[in-house]
Design goal:
With 295 residues, this protein is an alpha/beta fold. The chain has 10 helices and 8 strands. It is 33% helix and 15% strand. The structure holds iron/sulfur cluster. Iron/sulfur cluster binds next to helix 8 and helix 9.
């Protein structure tokens, strides 16, 4: 699936990069990353979910400038209801044949005392990768939590913020001792902009949506949203969200969920939230993240 660099630089390739073709190509590339055997999930009637973030809390002990999930905008951050989180994970499990990549995410997920119960509900045998995404400032000590992380083959994904280096080293030491996998990543963070109307016209919006490399659906409060931006933005009342931009997992039958999930995953139309976002535009510039540590 890797395209030679020479071909990528042609005019045709440039045009394809801002078309539905490239959006679908990236999804398929993601699928094949887990091996050619994944091709069976492309057969008619099968349903795979490429990437899903399960939001379990909006509490965070950092207030990063430019947090793309808009967490610092929550005035009253809270842990999400454990039973609803678990029920929605079960509904997603029932409705899908494969989940390639499932992230447990916040805020900061290690702040949530219910993390171990939520992890128990994760269908790890159906997932290629299960990750907990953390800022590596809170080192868990509950043996039950560590045990479930091991059993569910969780990878602890740590953001490589420079100011958390010390706690990260202690965290890595603990995970190594306990036999839990981890990975430190140093992504190039980019500015998605404040959640405000950027007045992109329809043509720009389409280009933006196809050029946007985000493929993470967001499971929050019983609903699977097309993107974390329309999920948190709509919860905060700062960004509109259309009725066809999420799947109400808890209130649908399994058949309805399958139908709507397929439509959501292969969506070719911009979201209302794209109007309130800079991702996929020339203004989506690099930034330093993890700057402000809450006292
Ligand atoms: S709101 Fe639109 S442009 Fe922004 S990250 Fe989501 S899909 Fe991409």
């Amino acid at each position: 699936m890797n395209i030679p660099k020479r071909l990528k630089q042609t005019k045709l390739a440039e045009r394809l990069k801002v078309s539905w073709f490239y959006k679908d190509y990236r999804r398929l590339k993601w699928c094949f990353q887990y091996g050619p055997s994944r091709i069976k999930y492309l057969l008619p009637g099968r349903l795979w979910v490429d990437k899903v973030d399960v939001c379990i809390t909006t509490k965070c002990n950092m207030r990063c400038d430019g947090c793309d999930h808009l967490i610092p905008y929550y005035k009253e951050p809270a842990h999400l209801d454990k039973d609803r989180v678990i029920a929605s994970i079960r509904k997603l499990d029932e409705a899908s044949d494969r989940i390639f990549h499932l992230n447990i995410l916040g805020g900061e997920p290690f702040l949530d005392p219910d993390l171990k119960y939520i992890l128990e509900a994760v269908p790890s045998e159906k997932c290629d990768v299960v990750q907990i995404v953390t800022n590596a400032t809170i080192i868990p000590s509950d043996p039950e939590l560590i045990d479930v992380m091991r059993r569910k083959k969780v990878v602890v994904l740590m953001s490589g913020y420079s100011q958390t280096e010390r706690s990260r080293s202690a965290f890595i030491e603990m995970l190594t001792r306990e036999g839990v996998a981890y990975h430190v990543y140093y992504p190039v963070w980019t500015d998605f902009g404040a959640p405000q109307d950027y007045h992109h016209d329809q043509k720009e919006l389409k280009r933006q949506f196809f050029a946007c490399k985000e493929s993470c659906h967001n499971l929050r409060d019983g609903k699977l949203y097309a993107c974390f931006r329309n999920s948190h933005g709509s919860a905060l009342g700062l960004v509109p969200c259309g009725e066809d931009e999420y799947v109400d997992l808890l209130n649908n039958s399994t058949a309805e969920n399958r139908k709507q999930l397929r439509r959501l995953i292969w969506r070719h139309r911009p979201l209302l939230a794209c109007q309130y976002c800079l991702r996929g535009t020339a203004d989506n510039v690099g930034i330093v993240r993890g700057k402000q540590l809450k006292k």
